[in-house]
């Protein structure tokens, strides 16, 4: 009888799994290597016709060891060394399948929107240096290695993909799968005119917006303070690095079970999990790179729900730490730091009209800084009294035109990757998460028989009515689709 | 600025909402009526073009006030009175849309597999007594009423449906929607030959199974105890009361916003939520009747994930308490009490062959009891020494044939409905759950603007690639579909 199944039946909260008794040498090596090591087991009922199909998976979460402005080859080499050490410990723990975090060979530089040097981290998914490195690991430890990288596809016009390569325990490249859903969120994307969240109307001050600037008309001699809050809206432009995957939903038959890889943002799309499951995945890895302000409250829900909805195991992996980039960039809602931004000032003497302007990112203003907010006196003489307000929200450089200016805080990091990698089971049970701040290896022993056992109990595939949904979705995507809304 | 959005950005756990300041008279009335009353608010960012679209929803969870063997009309009347009192309080709290639990006018008798008197609770969704009752409530309080009932569809051969009727605040029947997914789980269904989970082989005892009986061959004069564990497997037969809904995924445009109803087991199917959302639902109610052993560990995950995945509010409602039925019935894994069942005994003297037999449910054995396990001495003289073992697992009636018998614990209740109704928001935030044991009313104030705001931030509809999934699903349902499995 599946103890985890019984346990889920008994406890309303997430049932935690039995701790694995990991070898002392592995625990020592992990503490020497300064990374967390945890192990848990998921059990299933005994069957007459099948023996327990026990497999141990290893989830690796880590920070980038070297600063992002270190030469590319050095960064990659340092990451190879770091992961090699973790995989050594995974081998001591009897791990059969190991999976690394999204784009694990590089800092998550897509937030910068710069191409060089970041695109130099891209490599071939068939014979790039990282693949060769992973093949050695696989052969040495007879371990399946799932290696998510930035792929350079030279066979198709040198395009980039967000790809995971699956390497068999024999060392052969079993195949690759690509990120099916690309975010249009915050730092992943481009600039869009922000919405005004708050404008405290005060006597004698009025506001006009023209899609490029906010214009404040102020009665002469007014001395009141004004306050404006702005939240940049997420972009709806394309991701600037890679496009949606074109490989569908392949499942890989490994020596230890059928696995699939749902990369990062695909986690938010239940249909993505479903198609991997329909194709037979018993374990779906979700290598990710996501930050607190963006997704941390969703993190414990989505992969766990996917395990429940698809009668399979899911492995959610997220990197840790903060990555700093040489050049400043600005953000959507994904940005670190207080949201919304606040720009505030006391009006200078004799101000008649004030203008608050923004530039799109990548369009440096006269100071060579990207997106910014300029607050300048459009009418009247230049003033020495620059804007005041919460300093950390503002810079006060002078534009060449000599007007005082206030800027969004452009920043050099994407935010804090919160780790918290975990494994969820088809019966709704889950392991605790790894640390939010430390590198770590999570070892989970899975009896894959639990997938079919829970399938036979809940039967979501049987009751899923996919034919109906295939038809409804086909209708819904038509340009002239009319939603079925019943009115009185 | 949406405080809930900010909060989700800050806290890894489920962010809880601001408590509503509910009128004292309402709180007093609730305590007089002996039900819990809680209120929370979800906020959204201020917009320039839309004012806040604030709506208050009321979720009602309750036990059945009268025993299940009370005359049907009395049970219905008592439920009407109970819910009427709760709705009075909802009105005091300014509730605009109220939703009751699944099949709220009756005990959840489907586990009995008996037809009478339970099917007498079914009524017309257009002009049945409960609909008329709800229309009065709607008119009196200018409140939209969502009333999930067992529907008798006299226009289509008197078939039964698991239906929710939506009544406009004007009192008009706006329309109905039907349960799209029917469980094939445990008590919801019919009998299937169980699997043997454990048979402790002991010297001199062998086991043979013929799909109808377990035969134990025992060497004469053996005295050892034997032990057999059996777990009934969930059925794959049709539900015996109603079939899958045939009304698709209608969304109802009410005075207070666009709503849909995903009844109970549809909660487990992400595509069901998705189609309601694609059709424009801003609030999806999930009236349920589910028990701890079956689903409690999934409860906090599924509706919350649906709110996240579909940029809408979800309202999960579950009844409370335990309902006792006149006649015994047996269960699948959904059953209350220890699973698996254990049948054990010391062998009587001179036993040669023992037989353990089962009957399908609804086929009363000689004692007029449904599904049972008979353990009888097939060879040799009747023995006075009946089976022994954990008493609560066994009855020891004698069959007319005079052999000692052991039965599964047939029971008279479905299990414990754990309440815990809650509301989840598109940003991943949620309210606390209502009590696991008490009747209750949960009032939630929703700013529906949050749906489109989160949609614009996360953009799951935009990045959903539904065209691809419509095609993949259409392929996947074909009888000759070959899953995409990559082999070495």
From TrEMBL, chains A, B:
The record's listing under PROSITE patterns reads: CN_HYDROLASE (PS50263)
Q: Which organism is it from?
A: Ovis ammon polii
Keyword terms: Hydrolase
Indicate yes or no for the key word Chloroplast: no
Q: Which domain of life is it from?
A: Eukaryota
Q: What is the lineage of its organism?
A: Eukaryota, Metazoa, Chordata, Craniata, Vertebrata
Protein name per UniProt:
CN hydrolase domain-containing protein
Name the SUPFAM superfamilies on file: Carbon-nitrogen hydrolase
Single GO BP term: beta-alanine biosynthetic process via 3-ureidopropionate
């Amino acid at each position: 009888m599946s103890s985890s199944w019984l346990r889920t039946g008994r406890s309303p909260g997430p049932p935690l799994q039995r701790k694995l008794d990991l070898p002392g040498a592995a625990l020592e090596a992990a503490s020497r290597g300064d990374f967390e090591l945890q192990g848990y087991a998921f059990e299933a009922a005994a069957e007459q016709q099948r023996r327990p199909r026990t497999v141990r998976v290893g989830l690796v979460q880590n920070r980038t060891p070297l600063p992002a402005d270190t030469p590319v080859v050095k960064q990659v080499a340092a990451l190879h060394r770091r992961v090699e050490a973790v995989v050594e410990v995974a081998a001591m723990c009897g791990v059969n399948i190991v999976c690394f975090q999204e784009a694990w060979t590089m800092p998550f530089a897509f937030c910068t929107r710069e191409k060089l040097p970041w695109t130099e981290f891209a490599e071939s998914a068939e014979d790039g240096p990282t693949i060769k490195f992973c093949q050695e690991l696989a052969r040495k430890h007879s371990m399946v290695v799932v290696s998510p990288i930035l792929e350079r596809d030279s066979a198709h016009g040198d395009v980039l993909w967000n790809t995971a390569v699956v390497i068999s325990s024999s060392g052969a490249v079993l195949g690759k799968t690509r990120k099916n859903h690309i975010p249009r969120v915050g730092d992943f994307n481009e600039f869009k005119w922000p919405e005004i969240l708050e404008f405290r109307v005060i006597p004698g001050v009025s506001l006009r917006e023209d899609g490029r600037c906010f214009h404040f008309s102020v009665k002469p001699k007014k001395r009141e303070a004004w306050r404006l809050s702005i939240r940049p809206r997420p972009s709806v432009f394309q991701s600037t690095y890679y496009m949606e995957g074109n490989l569908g939903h392949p499942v890989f038959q490994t020596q230890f079970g059928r696995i699939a890889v749902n990369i990062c943002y695909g986690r938010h799309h239940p249909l993505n999990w479903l198609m991997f499951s329909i194709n037979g995945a018993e374990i779906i890895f979700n290598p990710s790179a996501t930050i607190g302000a963006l997704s941390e409250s969703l993190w414990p829900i989505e992969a766990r729900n996917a395990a429940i909805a698809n009668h399979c195991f899911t492995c959610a992996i997220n990197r840790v730490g903060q990555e700093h980039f040489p050049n400043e960039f600005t953000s959507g809602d994904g940005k670190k730091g207080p949201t919304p931004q606040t720009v505030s000032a006391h009006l200078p003497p004799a101000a008649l009209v004030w203008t608050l302007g923004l530039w799109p990112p990548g369009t440096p203003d006269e100071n060579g800084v990207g997106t910014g907010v300029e607050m300048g006196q459009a009418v009247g003489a230049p003033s020495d009294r620059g804007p005041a307000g919460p300093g950390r929200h503002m810079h006060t450089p002078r534009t060449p035109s000599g007007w005082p200016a206030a800027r969004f805080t452009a920043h050099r990091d994407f935010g804090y990757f919160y780790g918290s990698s975990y494994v969820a089971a088809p019966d709704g049970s889950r392991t605790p998460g790894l640390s939010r701040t430390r590198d770590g290896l999570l070892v989970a022993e899975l009896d894959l028989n639990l997938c079919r056992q829970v399938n036979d109990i809940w039967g979501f595939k049987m009751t899923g009515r996919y034919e109906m949904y295939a038809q409804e979705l086909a209708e819904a995507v038509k340009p002239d689709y009319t939603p079925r809304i019943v009115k009185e």
